[in-house]
Design a protein that fits this description.
TIM Barrel; about 260 residues; alpha/beta; binds 3-methyl-2-oxobutanoic acid
Length: about 260
Amino acid sequence: MSVTVRDLRAFKERGERFVMLTAYDYPTARILDEAGIPVILVGDSVGNNVLGYETTIPVTMQEMLHHTRAVVRGATNALVVGDMPFMSFHTAIEDAIANAGRFLKEGGAHAIKLERPVIEVAAAIVDRGIPVMGHIGLGPQSVHAMGGYRVQGRTEEDARKILDEAQALDKAGIFALVLEGIPSDLAARITETMSAPTIGIGAGPHCDGQVLVINDLLGLGFGSYPKFAKPYAHLRETIAEAVTRFAADVAAGEFPDEAHAYR
Ligand code: KIV
């Protein structure tokens, strides 16, 4: 690792916008790392993007540690953040601290992310020397409580609540805060008032950094993409075309040809 949590604060101080991307495996992590992406999140979105779950709720600590280790092996420069899965930090604070520690000790991550405004838990983990990234606004782990994936903070009262959560997490010592699915003007207010950098996803252009799920960016998704996601490639179609051509070549007796066979 050569990017550290201090670098993210320096980006904010210099007004330099930065990116974070998710990765779930070695080759993707290596490509992102070699492309100079400073922060890689092993998101619990591995659940719906890689493991075939409908939501992130079933994702376990074992699954997260397995994918975190693969990503860490591929990333030599980026800061790797492990996402704490649903119910791994919701019970006793000691269990939350122990699970956070496993991401560093067993997973090799450099930091963890907590997808809820759990101020005391965040402060206790920071106190053990584990860097914590917060995540507020639309939390996919709370999909059932929210009644779907809904933009949060649309009323003044909800916006105030989210602003208060951001400030409390900032005081608790988090090194960065993901703002998901909130109006742009609220994200701007939070970004102005926080010392830690904000990283937006569906939170408009005024955050210090931006994050996307790698499958959305690469066009590897099934069904429709969220409004905030922009596919920069269309790899699902590219893969389908490649495997179809391979099958057609084999059927036609054109593969393997002389160039791909041993004498
Ligand atoms: O799990 C994830 O991919 C995330 C990002 C959307 C921030 O939490």
